[in-house]
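Hey,
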Amino acid sequence: MRLCQNSTFSLDYDAASDILHINYTDLQGLSLSDVMYSLQLLVEAIRTYQVKKLLLDLSRSIIEVSDDKNKAITVQFLSDLILTQVQKVARIQRVDPHVEKVVQTSLEHLKEVGLIPFQLQTFASKSDAIAWLLEETGNLASQL
């Protein structure tokens, strides 16, 4: 079910698999407030549909923000995600190896400081990401 679509992203929810998929196409030229607004829409959809599985596809997006702004956006987004029922997040890695390295370094640091309490994996393909999201998570409370 298509929840939202514009020139920047599309947001789709599959109730049968409980996967919310956001596909960013072009962040080039967007203001920081526009990016934050799109992430707020995403978090609101997660809350509304009580989503437990999230697929982030930024693989083809072009981002024109500094590494520091990118990190600030990521920290804010993860802080908002913590307040939802999300259990698994799959992200499709970026085509640009420099950007992907910055993202991976940032995510590793955020995991270390406890800002990522859910399962998070990065994948080269959408099909691998979906397969992982569809795997049973088991009882997360017993894993804590």
